[in-house]
Every structure is written in C-alpha cells, then in structure tokens.
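Progress narrative, work stream C.
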Amino acid sequence: MNCPTNVKYTKEHEWIRLEGDVAYVGITDYAQQQLGDIVFVDIPTVGETLAAGETFGTIEVVKTISDLFLPVSGEVLEQNETLADQPELVNQDPYGEGWLIKIKPAADADFDCLLDAEAYKALINE
C-alpha cells in the first residue's frame, strides 16, 4: 500500500498536500482499496469555506456512499473535473490524477494535528 511522505493524513483516510498557498485533497490508497470501484464523486461545496472535519462531498461505490471530510479549514476552490467522466482515477492514482479538490487553507489551518506517513501506517495496521 502506498503512503507518500509528502502528504499529511487524517484518521478518516483523506490526505492533503500543500503546494504554495493551495492544497490538494484526496482519499488515501488504503481508503480506495477498502471502498472498491469508485463510480461517482460528488463535490457540491466549491466556493464554500468549511471547517476542518466538515463534509465537502461524497464518493460513491457500487454498494455505498461515503462522506468526504476536509482535513483542515479552508475554502474549496475547485473540484477535479476529470473525475466526472473518469471516477476510476481515484482508484488508479489516488495521490496524483485522482485528487478530489483544491482548497485555500485558512490562515489558522492546523496541519500539525494531521498524521505523517508513519503515523498513518500505524493507524491502518492496528
């Protein structure tokens, strides 16, 4: 299972990668494996400012729909439009082409409360 060290993780299996003043958010390799084949991604929150832990959208697999939680406070700037036609990218490349949203983190966004790769690996191996 892939756990890149250049991202931070949540206990809910989202990841976040800061690039300048914008952050990419997606679900982890572990999460996509547990969910199975992703058939639809719904992100109705573009343009909204949300608190850490708030639901920013849902991800749908054949048998269930799962909520997606924002790792840190911020404004949802953009969703990955490619996923409308190719939701399977989340399964194939969860840390790359399968990213879900871009956010502008709030000034007080707390990245220190998130897990690093080692702590995340420990969480999923419990």
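Work stream C, second folded protein:
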Amino acid sequence: MRVLAFAASNSSQSINRRLANHAADVFEAEFAPGAEIDRLDINDFEMPIYSIDREQADGVPALANAFIARIAAADRVIVSFAEHNGHYCAAFKNLFDWASRLEKKVYQDKPMVLLSTSPGPGGAGSVLKAAVESAPFFGCDLRASLSVPRFGDSVDPETDVLIDDALSQALRAALGKLV
C-alpha cells in the first residue's frame, strides 16, 4: 500500500507537516505495516499564480501534472491543512487550482483523512471545514477529519507524537477508517 501524506502549507516549520507525518507514521505502524509512505512537500510544486490568461498563453505547468501523478500513485491520502486568515494557504490553493485544470477530481476518488492544526484553540477548524465541505466536488473519498487545537500543548516537541490522549485516540479512529 502506498500512502501519500502532505501538509497544505509551504512553511519550512509547518506544524501541519509535522501532524501529517505523525499521522502517516501511526497509520503505517498500527494499520498498514510495510506501507510505503510518500511524503510530499508542496514547495516542490511552486508555480506562477493561476490565471486563465496564463493558462491560455502557456498551458498548464508540468508541476501540476507531477502533483496529479503523485496522487494517482497513492492508495490512501492524508492531508493536513494550514489555515491562513481562515482559509487555505495561498501556495496550496494555487497548486490545487492548477491541478484542477487537468483533473476536476483532483483527489481521484482516493480514500482520505483530512487534518488541520494550529497553535490556537481553533485548530484551523475553518479551513478544515472548507476542505471537508468541498471534498465531494474534487473526488475525495473522505473517510474522516480531525482538527488538533493548541498544537504546542498537544504534541511532544521532541517526537511530534500526540500526547493528548483524547486527540491521540481520535487520530487513530480516523486513520482506522482508511483500512
């Protein structure tokens, strides 16, 4: 089984990357031993800001095809969304917009768990809600979602393992739905 895990964030210090990686590690260790984990970094897919004019003049960048191919190669997908002013990180939104020009069902009906976290009590819940609500329109076989509030208080800073028992169990319950 191949699992694609990534943060919808372009921060080099992304707590959402840390959460996505932890979730992928838990999934492999507890639900799919031997699974191949593909850890995608959206910084590897930086493209010009999407516009219809740019698309008509230059076509869709090859990096959008590469992103779609990584999703296609996965059997399961784990995404953790960063929240910027209540919505998607601009870098992810741009990548998603370009990818959707190639394949409206960007997620290609892959079983997915959607996550989010933030330093504050909201746990990036606004962006997670937007992602969950739009998921069916973009080919997401949404199995579960989970918001992790107060990342700094919920995760061991040395290991990135959830130390909040309720959140740890909720993550495992969500990941179990990918089996």
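The chain has a mean pLDDT of 97. No further action is required on this item.
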